[in-house]
Specification:
Rossmann fold, globular, binds magnesium ion, binds zinc ion, HAD_sf
């Protein structure tokens, strides 16, 4: 059985972007807005070297909400995938939920099974890739990420990203971190202390 690190995307791997129309910090809506935090690539390399499989688990409801197009969402993903490939970062799978319960695009607006905090994608990865969830980790910047990891039985790290502070406060992560670099240090130190 393999161990994995499940990573949320926006606010963990790439910055949230101020949308002047809403005044809110939102996911990038075009490839040009995709801006990775410093140290992401080397942090992901460290996890791969330590033997972890990497999975991306991301809610992307902004098409369902009428804020962007599916094409733009895919273009942002393709840019991210390209950056990872150029840097020899291997994600075993990318899991995106495009749904939202209160969206305005009927086909994508319902209570789905795959939206975090539901652990659907983590359980799917465990089955499809023989992942030991109890030896795995979920990293995210919102309570929904932590609740997702807790529901799946992983350890959890909450990143206290400044622009997503309004989405935190009720979940119980195992660890807190300032950014992905700190989160990865926690995982590597923990793995050294408690080797499996
Ligand atoms: Mg996030
Ligand atoms: Zn979904």
């Amino acid at each position: 059985m393999r161990k994995a690190v499940f990573l949320d995307r926006d606010g963990v791997i790439n910055r949230l972007i101020l949308n002047p129309k809403t005044g809110e910090y939102e996911p990038p809506h075009s490839p040009e807005e995709l801006d990775l935090y410093p140290g992401v690539i080397s942090s992901l390399h460290s996890l791969m070297e330590a033997g972890f499989y990497l999975f991306l688990v991301s809610n992307q409801p902004d098409y369902a909400k009428g804020k962007t197009t599916l094409e733009e969402i895919k273009a942002v993903h393709n840019k991210l995938d390209e950056i990872f490939k150029e840097n020899k970062i291997i994600f075993q799978d990318y899991y995106y939920c495009y749904h939202h319960p209160q969206g305005i695009v009927p086909k994508y607006s319902y209570v789905c099974e795959c939206r975090k905090p539901k652990p659907y994608f983590l359980l799917k990865a465990a089955k499809d890739y023989s992942i030991d969830l109890s030896g795995s980790w979920m990293i995210g910047d919102r309570d929904s990420d932590i609740e997702c990891g807790n529901a799946a039985g992983t350890r959890t790290i909450l990143i206290e990203e400044e622009h997503s502070a309004g989405y935190r406060g009720i979940s119980a992560p195992d660890f807190f971190a300032g950014d992905i670099c700190e989160a990865v240090k926690i995982i590597l130190e923990f793995s050294k202390k408690f080797p499996t």
